[in-house]
Amino acid sequence: MMKSYTQQSLITVLGPIDGRSLGYTDAHSHLYIAPVAGGPADAPVLTDTEAIAEELTEYCHAGGGAIIDCQPTACGRDGLVLRDLSERTGIHVVAATGFHRRRYYPADEPLFQLSADEAATLFLDEIQNGLTETREADDPVYPGFIKIAAEATLEETPRPLLEAVCSVSRATGYAIEMHTEKERPSRTFWRSFWPRGLTGPSGFLPCRQATGLRAAQGVGRGRCDAGIRYFLPTQVRPGQQCLAVNRKDG
Hints:
By secondary structure, the chain is an alpha/beta fold. The chain is built from six helices and nine strands, in the order βββαβαββαβαβαβα. Strands 6-7-8-9 form a four-stranded parallel sheet. A three-stranded parallel sheet has the order 3-4-5. Helix 1 packs across helix 2 and helix 3 packs across helix 4 (159-172).
């Protein structure tokens, strides 16, 4: 069962640590993605653990300390693999509960048929009892944040799932990290859901904005004024530099 931790604690795949000890952190990556039965043929697959471990070791030698892994529930996540990679390389890895875009799931994925209460129960169960795929292990792996993903517009994104993550964030203080390729979905989410009490120690972290640096900085200032933590994309684009490159979409 989930234990009580201090506000500075962060749950990694190896257990709780003081979040201030993370070091340089890639805040949006996908380390390992298993094939999804019935999923789309063009869905990303990342299963070469030796190559992944090698890249993580290079990242560590370059000064990296942690990676936030954004592969959520039922679409190729494997918490046991993430834990093994963390143990082998010394990189802190934080796993996610939550949901991705529909395109990464089978057409009949039950997750998208859940009510808000049912989805909240699912996400909270993973926070309290460990990631579903790790339950058979003697020591399950626990998530450290909630990943969500917007479709092209917020109206196309399952509202019950959005309401569920808001409820779980309020109850646990877990951060919500939102994948979006455009500014509008995260801005609408912020305006619609922030007044519902997302005031935990971590809050709401929109990411993957493709609006340009100047626009993103302006939006970020407004959100920070409202108490929302904000970060720019981790992807390298021409003329940009960053510590780690996110290798896959999403």
